Amino acid sequence: MDISRRRALLATAAAPLAGMALRASARDVADGPDSRKTDSSSAMLAPRPPMGWNSWNSFAGTITEEQTLETARIMADKLLPSGYDTLTVDIQWYEPEASSYSYNANPVPALDEYARLIPAPNRFPSSKGGKGFAPLADKVHALGLKFGIHVMRGISRLAVKRNLPILDTGYRAQDIADTSSICPWNPDMYGVDMGRPGGQAYYDSIFRLYASWGVDFIKMDDMSRPYDAHVPEIEAAGKAIARCGRPMVLSLSPGETPVPRGDHVRRYAQMWRISDDFWDDWGMLEAQFTRLANWSLFRGPGCWPDADMLPLGRLALGDRDTRFTPAEQRTLMTLWSIARSPLIMGGDLRYLDEATLTLLTNREVLAVNQASTDNQPHYLEDGIRVWSARASDSEDRYLALFNMSGEARPVGADLALLGMPQRMAVRDLWAGQELGVSEGRVTAELPPHGSALYRLRAVS
Questions:
Q1: Nearest residue to 150 (alpha-carbon basis) of 102, 217, 212, 204
Q2: DSSP string covering 42-105
Q3: Ranges of Basic and acidic residues compositional bias (predicted)?
Q4: What is the pLDDT of residues 409-442, one digit of tens each?
């Protein structure tokens, strides 16, 4: 079964950071990574990388209200204590006939009278009577979780066919639709021509609707690629959220978001995808190292380059478990943590096993993701990757070592090359153990595609 919505990006990642930095705005490069000009409200919306669960990797577009609530209860019990607090219903919650990872060529989505998509009542029965997602969101909130939904860029093609009115305007769907702007992998929507009157009013109306439902998080798809073609709608969504009356985190998808547009994207969204859909394939994981490195200039409070969901545990409508080896699963979590990517679990929580739960909830590893600073890669030797960061609560440093080869090997880094003191007490964060004092170099014996994550403290 082909479970990718889009073309898999398995080959070369984005250009090296140095080259991209030259093309980034002079203001950003001059400011440097620690003086980001982020909007204060954006930083307050997502002061740390968001953590949560999303239905795509395990349910495709088929999730129901019953499955959502079952997952929410497990999430509140197993993952919320570790900080995973946002549950997101992914694509096609408005499609009554959604059945797999492929899409109906001629969908008949649920719509209200103002051209806005609403939950399919056969899948989300509490939405009947114009209630939308409000009853479901209330139940999710009662568990201590935030509620998120996936939306597509634009306006429903069915709404355009029916030429439905736009709320609080004299315009109709055909007045604002750009029928030449279509998603290459999904047949649901047309783009909105933001140069026409009524376009912003449409976006304002859909986000006010989501606010009335109690939505906390929006994953907005078909936005980041091609980026410049979609800039007017990216800005429209950002403006609509700002005036909708409810705080919402905006996550743009899919990638690859162009690194030179980092200054723009961080002004309108709190998360943005750096790649196409990420699945459990070593080639995809290897490519994310370069992409995450390239985005280092733009990472900070309210600005989180997103390496995509964690395809761990049971996946693909229950067809299989993750193809990542145990070492690769740890490498995934180590990289997402040291690079501070959002941590969004994708596996089916109804089949959450102890090994996966342990991987997701290591308190010391999650602290690297949630509270470190100065996260950066170091290019020291072929076949290895090295990242470092600073702890937020002391002068301690974090060090991540990665074996990129298919053979077991020692991987190490000289402390002087990392700008660290020569004598460091080493704590293994995955094992939760003190390893003693290293002088001049930290080295680990790593399995194929394996990793290590340490906390280092200077000693005299």
A1: 217
A2: HHHH-SS--EEEESHHHHTT---HHHHHHHHHHHHHHTGGGT--EEEE-S-TT-TT--SSS--S
A3: 26-39
A4: 999 999 999 999 999 999 999 999 999 999 999 9
In angstroms, the CA 275 to CA 263 distance is 18
Spatial neighbors of 142 by CB under 8 A, at least 6 apart, are: none
The encoded tokens of residue 37 equal: 């000009």
The H or E element that residue 262 is part of is helix 262-268
pLDDT at 31: 31
Q: What is the spatial distance between Cα 357 and Cα 359, in angstroms, rounded to a whole number?
A: 5
The dihedrals phi and psi of 166, each to the nearest 5 degrees, come to -95, 130
pLDDT at 8 over 50: no
What pLDDT was estimated at residue 350? 98
Rounded-to-integer distance, Cα 132 and Cα 124, Å: 9
DSSP helix/strand/coil, 367: helix
Read off the pLDDT of residues 151-171 as tens digits, 9 standing for 90 and up: 999 999 999 999 999 999 999
CA distance 93 to 86: 17
Tokens for 216?
Answer: 């906390």
Type of residue numbered 364: E
Residue (of 397, 401, 394, 395) closest to 378 by Cα position:
401
What's the start-to-end Cα distance of the chain, in Å? 58
What amino acid is encoded at 379 in this protein? Y
pLDDT tens digit sequence for 242-274: 999 999 999 999 999 999 999 999 999 999 999
Asked if the model's pLDDT at residue 39 lies above 70, the reply is no
| Mean pLDDT lowest among 28-32, 64-68, 253-257, 328-332 | 28-32
Q: In this structure, how many other beta carbons lie within 10 angstroms of the beta carbon of residue 187?
A: 12
Range 87-110 average pLDDT? 96
Domain annotation for the chain: domains and CATH numbers: 17-371 (3.20.20.70), 377-458 (2.60.40.1180)
Taking the model in full, what pTM does it have? 0.91
The answer to whether residues 75 and 142 touch, using CB atoms and an 8 Å cutoff, is no
Give the 3-state secondary structure of residue 436. strand
Whether the Cβ atoms of residue 388 and residue 399 lie closer than 8 Å to each other = yes
Supply 104's token pair.
Answer: 């109906």
